[in-house]
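re the bet — no i am not wrong, look at it urself. input seq straight from the record:
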Amino acid sequence: MSEPTISTILIIDDDAEIRYSLSRVLGSRGYVVEEAGSGEAGVARIKAGPAPAVVFMDIRMGGMSGIEALQHIRSASPKQIVVLMTAFGTAQTAIEAMKYGAFDYIMKPFTAEKVLAITESALKAQADMRSVSDYKPALNTDDYKEGIVGASPVMQDVFKTIGQVTASDVTVMITGESGTGKELVARSIWKHSHRSTKPFIAVNCAAIPDNLIESELFGHEKGSFTGATGQRIGKFELCDGGTIFLDEIGDMALATQTKILRVLQQGEIQRVGGTETIRVDARIIAATNKDLEAMVKAKTFREDLYYRLNVVRIKMPPLRERVDDIPQILDFCLQNLVKSKKARVGKLSPAALNVLMQHTWPGNVRELENVIYRSAVIAQGDAILVKDLPTELREAVAAQPSAGASDHACAPDALPQLAAAVDDGGAGAAPMTLAQALDLVYAELAKGTAPILPQVEHELFERAKRAEGDDPARLAARLGLTKPAVKKRLEEHGS
């Protein structure tokens, strides 16, 4: 077994007492400590190599300032971890420190505990960075052209249906929770249809007041209402020959629903305040996150319109039902951010991926995109680490009980680590190999302190259900069981 590597810490400060104090604190924990009495000397030491694990550097020094030295260090060694020290905790100090890539900054006077905590955090970040060195995207760039990604069975069904409806002008209803990508599906249908050379117009029905939506959709004539100073062409006319996407159609007023029905039945509209009947040829794709069947029963949505819209339905699954797609979605988001120059970070550490795989994602793909964008902007290296993820997300994941904990007693540490290994699917993102994870579980089993085998079986079955639903045939194929065995387990699990 190789000996553990002793980390080198470089202290850059023109105050000898500060250097002495830090050297004693860090040296007491076994770190190799080097010193530099100026920014110039510190930069020269780093350029000469080998690079220290962590640099502690004062901001205000005679000669080259800490901010200037930081820029030189980042230029010479972009991955170098630098902690700035200051006695002046101003807004400008904090902003400039983070702007130029400092890992953190510490206020003087500081305690030994604070110094050691920051050092340990920096070394952990460095280790996470090393684990990203062989990171490879889940898919090639060409695989992301559609803007919709996912290899899960539920998403493959979505892709198949998209392909089936593109050959005709059939009306499509897309359902699903907010943030699942309903507009992306609509755009994909339009892109592959014979109408792709004509306009695609998306209208968010929930964002337009009831008194304005008719004008927005059908246009209006001059003087038809207060403020109508001229004629306006509506979305349906503008979309003639193309595809109109009516998002959140469940929020549309009954009066407007009637006019949408007329468009579907007769292909005709009238501008608000007008008498002329105008023929339009626009394919309608609708979407909603509401239960339209319940709204029909409550008479808040027209039954005849519902059946006109619901010719072909595409149900977008929530992200929690296709967790295995998260690595692909992350790759897609990061590639887009780098391509659009909104961020320079195009990688993700295995530990960060593990956290993201455990989150329940109530906001679905939209929430995931926002999290990854925020984290990519915050990240100081060339990869997103756990520390770069939003605090509230990390706290939410940490507070989650182990899957199935209410049904089975289990070892608290073994199963989540096994789950992380299984989730990897060979993509190289897990913190351990499957064999290592199984060794861990076997060790817990050998202790005889908890019935872990039922918990492992339960976890695997629940994950298969999230991927395949309650279909016994698909579950049997996924788990390598017979259909009767699957049906028995479904009964046991209350499905």
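see?? The chain has a mean pLDDT of 82. told u. also The chain has four domains: 8-131, 153-317, 320-400, 407-495. so pay up
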